[in-house]
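In this supplementary section we document a worked example of the pipeline. Step one takes a protein sequence of length 453 as its only input; no multiple sequence alignment statistics are reported here. Step two produces a three-dimensional model, which step three serialises into structure tokens for compact storage. The input and output of this example are shown verbatim.
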Amino acid sequence: MPGPRTDRGRLILVLALAAVVIAFTATVPLLRDFFDLRVYYGTVHTWIHHGGRIYDYRVPGTAYGFTYPPFAALAMLPLAGLGRHTAIVASLLVNLAALAVILRILAGPDWRRHGWYGWSLVLCGLALFEPLRDTFSFGQVNLVLLALVLLDCLLLTTGRGRRAGAGIGLAAAVKLTPALFIGLLLLTRRWRAAGTATVVALAATGLAALADPDASRFYWTEALWDTGRVGRLDYVSNQSLQGILARLGEPDRALWAIAVLLVLSVWAVRSRRAVAAGDWTTAFALTGSAACLVSPITWVHHLVWLLPSFAVLARAGHVRVAGGLYAVLCTSVVWLWFSDASGIDGFLGSNVYTWITLGLLLFLPTGQPPDDREPLTRSASATAPAPSTARPATVAVCAQSDSSSDAGDVAAATGTAVGGTLGAAGRNPSSEPTGSTRPAAEKPQSSSWRASS
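The serialised model returned by step three reads:
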């Protein structure tokens, strides 16, 4: 069904979709109480103002504390000068800014052609994306890391690869998952960029070691290897290969290592193929998917690393596939197996986000330079002779192309909106910080938040 053709009709549609999104986010997925932000905030304040140790802090009433490398705590030092409510506002603003950078890079040089209408539909769809809304609600940092990594992707795509690497290095110093992007640079023989990323990561890590030697020693020798500090491997929010094996009750690390090697082999082949075609965006998208799969723990909110994959699918013309997979990632469907992931249905359903990630790694289109399609279209339209009565079909196709594009945007956005409401019923509240829902009494401004200082 074609979308509205007038600005008034489009405005009405956008307002209606916005109302659906607001109603959904206000009633269905309960807020996560900015739990991760509480960890960052409490850790930094304890460290700076009370002389505590970074990895000794625990959020009051829980067993959860800081799990990132020491440089991450150093980078979060501005939190030490903020009040709790100001820290929440700052987290939201920083994540919004990072999202704007990500969208600008993924949209490419012709981002203005989407106009206010196209971007409004995109924002409505993004507001329903479970990993994204959890990132905001937890106060997570993954969007900032993705923005840093994609800045290097932009440099490589635009022929400025000599300047690339710093963003990846900083991201890898904050969290280990982005370190796989250094592997991508090595794999594709971008030695200068790989060297820059490595030097930046090591320099940041060394700076943290100077700031707090004991914390650095503890992290790299003990905390890094203790996955129990992060959470249970079999928890349904862990959508990684290790999560699948843990829910199957398979503790054999050798089996996990074999699975990781297979995934990395596929990633290496497909990423090199993409880079050989000059398609850095796809190579980075494949690396994000592989990183989510091989990481021992990939919580649902970590899957914001899949956003570049959906941009690649849309660019390659697979809008319906992208919309369908995206809609599933809006449903919170994995939480239907929160209490029991046994049986065939549990094996398939509790790991559905992992299956999507694996599918993107295996089948994401490669070898399509991001700027090839649009210039060809513009060139054809610029050089085509004036339409005549002898070729009415050509005119009809051109006219239909524009309307179908709008229709695709509307279908993708509305399909996502409908998909986002599925699977919401029947979920059990979870006391885990990575849970999809939390008890109604534990709201972001509850006593537990006030006590986290």
